[in-house]
Amino acid sequence: xxxxxxxxxxxxxxxxxxxxxxxxxxxxxxxxxxxxxxxxxxxxxxxxxxxxxxxxxxxxxxxxxxxxxxxxxxxxxxxxxxxxxxxxxxxxxxxxxxxxxxxxxxxxxxxxxxxxxxxxxxxxxxxxxxxxxxxxxxxxxxxxxxxxxxxxxxxxxxxxxxxxxxxxxxxxxxxxxxxxxxxxxxxxxxxxxxxxxxxxxxxxxxxxxxxxxxxxxxxxx
Length: 221
Fold this sequence. Notes:
The chain is of the alpha/beta class. The protein has a single domain (3-220), classed as 3-Layer(aba) Sandwich (Rossmann fold), CATH 3.40.50.150. The chain is 35% helix and 25% strand. It is built from 8 helices and 7 strands; from the N terminus they run αααββαββαβαααββ. The protein has a 7-stranded mixed beta sheet with strand order 3-2-1-4-5-7-6. It is globular and about 45 Å long. The chain starts with a helix and ends with a strand.
């Protein structure tokens, strides 16, 4: 066997320091920052087979309703994937945690009833391609549920977000971008937008570059 054939492929995403920071910060945000109830709202009413991309450390898993028959959770970062696998063992629904990138999902077309993206479109390398993949793997009429942060409505913060995205923010925070427009991207990907709402996280206190959030649903046309 040649050396090339025995080489272990690198993970699609490798941010070991940020992954450890995110694992701790996200748990605190769920417990003290009010994010936990948003996850319940995001996943409410789902049923059948679900694919979740960028599952992180698996904090969504505890919020899936029992009407979901299976969750395939794709997470490219190794440390977070290990934590997600542990969280899957505690979930009330079957969860299979797998490696893979959002831009090339390792699943068949039209295989899922719903798809979930949760604070992940900010960091994927190619948003249109990732959404095209979700469109591919959803059955016709399948739902896309999203909880994302994005561009601020005001000029001042929006300008600051763009400046951060061009400089230090993606390097410090695992490829995260603060000025993307998830709603526009979802619509451009040929999804029919359903109900959504915009809000701030945290609701009180100073506004952060990542405070401007949207939660909603869209349907594959």
